[in-house]
Every structure is written in C-alpha cells, then in structure tokens.
Amino acid sequence: MKYSILSLLFLAALCLSSCEKKDFSKDKWDKEDEICFELLYPVSYTMPDGSTITAADEKQYWTLIKGWYEENPEVEEKPELLYPVDIKYTVGTIETIQDEAEMIAVKEDCADEDDE
User: Fold this and answer.
1) Where do runs of H (alpha helix) occur along the chain?
2) Closest by alpha carbon to 28, among 65, 56, 54?
3) Is 6 in a helix, a strand, or coil?
C-alpha cells in the first residue's frame, strides 16, 4: 500500500510537470537544444506576427524575445530564424547555413555525434 501511494504521487507530479506553461527562459531552452555549434551574432528572427527581431548578442536576443512574448502572452508559436546564418562548431570551424533544411541536417549530424 505504501508503495502504491508513493507511485501514485510520483505519477501525479509527473503529469503536472508535463502540463507546465511554455518557458522561454535561457536555461530551459539551452537544455533542450544542446548541440555541437553556436549561432554567430547578429541574428534575426521573424516573430509570429510578422515583425523582425535582430539581436547583436545572446543576451540581447533573450531580452528581446522575452519582451515580445510578455507583450503577446496569447501567442505560443516560436520565432523563425532568418537565413542565411553563420554557425561556429565547437571545434572552431565556421559554416554558413542557407536554410532550415541545412540547419536540420547540421543538428542531426550533431545528434549522431552525441550517440557515438
């Protein structure tokens, strides 16, 4: 009985935590998107309303994105990165990514490296 109650409590906590509101905090985003490269700034994003945000560095990016979502709390869509962008791999190589398809391929290559 004791283990059943503990199991039930664990299951309830798990369900509640999976229903959390969207979180655009830097720490959460980084943990979800750990990859073998970083974007080189400046970068621009198209926001769900069609506006564009351009950031000179990562700190400015998070400030602008957070501010936009605070002003538009009903929106849940993510911003879209404007291409081309330059990335720098952890080994120091720089590459220009032309579109979303290339970015997906690069992220998959990083995931494959992590699996090895």
Assistant:
1) 2-18, 26-32, 58-71, 100-115
2) 65
3) helix
